[in-house]
Known about the structure:
Residues 63-159 form the Cytochrome oxidase subunit II transmembrane region profile domain. InterPro entries: CcO_II (IPR045187), CcO_II-like_C (IPR002429), CcO_II_C (IPR034210), Copper_CuA (IPR001505), Cupredoxin (IPR008972), Cyt_c_oxidase_su2 (IPR014222), Cyt_c_oxidase_su2_TM_dom (IPR011759), Cyt_c_oxidase_su2_TM_sf (IPR036257). This is Cytochrome c oxidase subunit 2. It is found in: Cell membrane; Membrane. Belongs to the cytochrome c oxidase subunit 2 family. By secondary structure, the chain is of the alpha+beta class. Among the domains are: 77-117 and 127-155, no CATH class; 164-303, Immunoglobulin-like (Sandwich). The protein is 28% helix and 17% strand. The chain is built from four helices and ten strands, in the order H-H-H-E-E-E-E-E-E-E-E-E-E-H. The strands form two sheets. Strands 3-2-1-5-8 form a five-stranded mixed beta sheet, with no helix packed on it. Strands 4-10-9-6-7 form a five-stranded mixed beta sheet. Strand 2 and strand 3 (186-189) form a beta hairpin. Helix 2 (77-111) packs antiparallel against helix 3 (127-155). It is elongated, with a radius of gyration of 39 Å.
Amino acid sequence: MIGIKSIVLAAGLAMLSVGAAQAAPAAPATKAVAAAPAATVSQDPMLAVDGAPAMAIDPKVGQPVDGLITIQPQVTPNGQQALWFHNTLLMPVITGICILVLVLLGWVALRYRRAANPVASKTSHNTILEVLWTGIPVLILLGLALPSIGLLQAQYKPAPKNAVTLKAIGNQWYWTYQYPDHGGFEITSNMLKEAGEIGKGERARTAIDGPRLLATDNRVVLPVGVPIRLITTANDVIHSWAIPAFWIKLDAVPGRLNETSFTINKPGVYFGVCSELCGARHGYMPITVEAVSPAVFAQWIKAKGGTMPGAAPAPAAAPATATASIATPGAPAPTAAVVTAGQ
């Protein structure tokens, strides 16, 4: 009898537990939170290895050319004016004077030698000759001074308000560049070494970077057709920022700001060097400037994290705050409130 009661009691308890299990609400399935996709660092297709827009280098423009005996092709108005002044005025005048002096020396040596002129003339004055050899050089110097003064004035003409400011800072032995009008970001430019000279983690120079001793790991990028305000200074000793194709050579003096302006007329890659003796590695401070269209320049500024003048800065994203809610049994799930404009 006791055994039958025990069996009945166990069966009843089992039925109660099954009913309780069916009556209890199932726990809501936990929604798996998808992990945020990893940020992919995509290289901007407009940027080359050195961070400048990809551009082919013309081996005959903006750099020394083997066998060339004249001034580099000029790509700024001041440079073109200086090239005209050199080729059209200076060289013909210098050549003419040298030939004239050489002819006069030869004529005097032959005409007034002892065999041809045993009795020397005692003439001490000749008014016509004295006026000529005084007046003609004065006129020549005046003819050279007028365009020379105009060129000198143009080289130090203040930049207009819409000029792009480039601040070049000389260091032993590399250059640092700042763009004050475009967010103030900074780039550092070092010479690229040859394949057999690099250390661990360094990039070797290739043909697309430029000539040996002139290629840099970061190029200066400037717009074409826009006035450039160049400001130079130095952190240690005197340096000099020089680009022959721009007709630019401006000293960088510690504690002092020097300024000049120029406008690049032609896109391309242009090379220069420090032109002031600044220490043991003075010959290893190259300068590389890449001139691009204003639209590409604006894209490069944005890729570098800068901003164009007049452009509104990107609004800072509000930090996302996660609100932890404790669900209570039987409580409804919170609904998202939709806020419409004007409410």
